[in-house]
Amino acid sequence: MANLQDKICIIGGGPAGISAAMYLQKKGYENYTIYEKLNKVGGKSYSPRIAVNGDERSYETGAIMGAVTYHAVHEVEEFGGVTHADGPNMRRMYRDSSGKEIFPFEPKKDFSIGKLIGLLKLKSQMKKLVKIMETKYKGYDCYGHRGVAQGKYSGLSKQLDNALELIEGENPNLKDLALPFDEFCKLNGVEEVMRIWLGPYTSFGYGYFDEIPAGYVMKYLDTTTAIEFINMRLWTWKEGTQSIYVAANKKLLHPAVLNTEVVKVERPAEGTEGKIKVTVRTEDVEHTEEFDKLIVTTPLDYFANYADAREEEKELFSKIIHEKYVDFIATFDKDQGPTISGYIFDNMVPERLGHAMVYYHRWEDLEANCPSVVYALRNHQGSEDAPYDYTIDTMMKDMKACGFPVKERLYEQETYYCPHVSPKDYADGWYDKLEAMQGKQNTYYGGEIISFGDMEDTCAASKDLVMRFF
Ligand SMILES: Cc1cc2nc3c(=O)[nH]c(=O)nc-3n(C[C@H](O)[C@H](O)[C@H](O)COP(=O)(O)OP(=O)(O)OC[C@H]3O[C@@H](n4cnc5c(N)ncnc54)[C@H](O)[C@@H]3O)c2cc1C
C-alpha cells in the first residue's frame, strides 16, 4: 500500500538509483535518500572531460549511446532538461584481425559470389526474425524477465506505440528465450542474424552467444532497436551520458549524498515490524539512519557483503554471473589516431578473448587527433579468463596493427558489467524467484540484473518498481 510518508533509502547513484528517486518524486514521495559511494553520480555513465590542444570536450569511459526505444532514459533527460539532439554522430568501419579494412556488408566492395549469397541470406533471415518476434514470440519485448520461464510476459512495454505501459499475457513459446542465443537462432533458422547482433552485443561487452540466454539479447536488441543500430540512428549526448544523471540529480528534492558508502544494512526479521537500519561511511566516519524501505541498485551478488542477507537471498544472488569488460581512452601522437570508430569482428569470438573488439572515435572534426576508447572482454563461461595485463597488452597490439599506436592510456578500467544468469538458471525460473522476494523485509531490488545492463533497462526497471510497489 502506497504511503507517501515512507522514508526510503536508495543504495547507488547510477542511472538506476537516480531514476528511482525521480520516479518516486514524481509519484509524490518526498522522503528518500540516495547514498552514492563515489564523488559523482552516473555510475557507469561516466564522461570525463579531456583537452586536446586546448579544446576540452566530453569523452565516454562507460555508456555512450541510446536509441529511439530509450523511453525511460528520455524521461530522465526531460526531467533534468538535457537533450540528445546535439550529440556527436556515430560512424563506423570494419577491420579484420590483422587490422586491414574490410567491407562485410557491402556486396560491391571486395565482390564475391559467396559474400553476395551470404548477404541475401542475412536479409531474408532478418525479415524472418522480425516476423517471428512479433508473432511466435509476442510479448518478448517488455522490460524484465519475470514469467518468461513459465511462458508468460509481464512488464513495461518497450514498443513505440504503448511504451512504458504495464502489459502482461501468456505465450508458451517465450520459454525458448532461456536458450543460449546461438541455439535460439538455430531453432528458428535465423543463424545469419548473429552477424548483425554481434556488433552491438558482444563487442559492447555483453558476452558471447553460446553462453547468454536469448532473453537478454532480444530484450536489449529488440528488432526496432537493432534496426536503429544497423542504420546508425543512435542517440549520444554532447556532454556525455553522465550529464543526463547529473542534471536529473540536480532537480531532485534530495540530490544523492556523495562519498557515502553503505556498509551495513540491518532489517527487522521477516514478518516483524520495525525500521531498517542503514549504516553509511563518509570519510571514515560511520553513522546509522533508519528507513522504512530499501531500494538496492548495486550488484546483488555483493549485497551480502554489507547487508544481513537471508539464506534465500545469498543462494539466489550467488547464481549471478557478470562480464569483465576492459576499456581505456587511448591518446595518439599528432595525426596518428583513427578518424572513425572501428569494429574488429574476428575478435568477437571466445577464442580471441582479451583482443580489442571495437574502438570508439567520438569527435569527427578532431579527425586523427581524437582520443579513442578501446574495448575488450576477458571472460567467457567455460574458458579461462584472459589475464588483465595480457588483455591490456593485446589491446595495445591490436590498435597498432590497425595503424594506431597508442601513446598513452587514460581512465583504464575493468568494469563489473552486465550481470545475468545462465541459460539453466534462467529456465529454472531465477527471475520468478527474485520476483517472489520483492518487498520481503521492505527490500526492493533494481538495477542491471532486473532486465539488462544498459541505461534504458536499468531506468525502466526503476519505473517498474516504483509503479508496482510504491
Ligand atoms: C564501457 C561501457 C559501455 C557502455 N555502453 C553503454 C551504452 O552505450 N548504452 C547504454 O545504455 N549503456 C551502456 N553501458 C551500461 C550502463 O552504463 C549501465 O548499464 C548503467 O550504468 C547501469 O546503471 P546502474 O545504476 O544499474 O549501475 P551503475 O551504473 O553500476 O551504478 C551503481 C552505483 O552504485 C554505487 N555503489 C556501489 N556500491 C555502493 C555502496 N555500497 N554504497 C553506495 N553506493 C554504491 C556505485 O558507485 C555506482 O555509482 C555501458 C557501460 C560500460 C562500462
Question: What does this entry show, briefly?
Answer:
This protein has 470 residues and is of the alpha+beta class.
Structure description:
With 470 residues, the chain is of the alpha+beta class. The chain folds into three domains: 8-44 and 241-319 and 422-469, FAD/NAD(P)-binding domain (3-Layer(bba) Sandwich), CATH 3.50.50; 55-60 and 70-91 and 321-420, Alpha-Beta Plaits (2-Layer Sandwich), CATH 3.30.70; 115-230, Guanine Nucleotide Dissociation Inhibitor, domain 1 (Orthogonal Bundle), CATH 1.10.405.20. Helices cover 29% and strands 21% of the residues. It has 14 helices and 18 strands. It has helices at 15-27, 71-80, 113-134, 181-187, 194-201, 214-220, 223-230, 242-251, 303-306, 311-317, 388-401, 423-427, 430-437, 455-469, and strands at residues 8-11, 32-35, 49-52, 55-58, 92-95, 101-102, 152-156, 166-170, 260-266, 276-282, 285-291, 293-296, 321-331, 341-344, 358-361, 372-377, 408-420, 443-445. Helix 1 (15-27) links the parallel strand 1 and strand 2. Helix 1 runs parallel beside helix 14, helix 2 packs across helix 8 (242-251) and helix 2 crosses helix 14 (455-469). It is globular. The termini are close together. The mean pLDDT is 97.
What is the count of structural domains? 3
CATH fold type of the largest domain? FAD/NAD(P)-binding domain
Distance between the termini: 7 Å
Q: How are strands sequenced across the largest beta sheet?
A: 6-5-14-15-16-13-17
CATH class of the largest domain: Alpha Beta
Radius of gyration based on Cα positions: 22 Å
CATH level-two architecture of the largest domain: 3-Layer(bba) Sandwich
Strand-residue proportion:
15-25%
- Count of DSSP H/I helices: 14
Task: Name the CATH homologous superfamily of the largest domain.
Answer: FAD/NAD(P)-binding domain
Low-confidence stretches: none
Question: Which hetero compounds are present in the coordinates?
Answer: flavin-adenine dinucleotide
State the helical fraction. 25-40%
Net shape: globular
Number of strands: 18
Average pLDDT, to the nearest integer?
Answer: 97
Report the sheet with the most strands, covering strand number, pairing sense and barrel closure: 7 strands, mixed
Structural class: alpha+beta
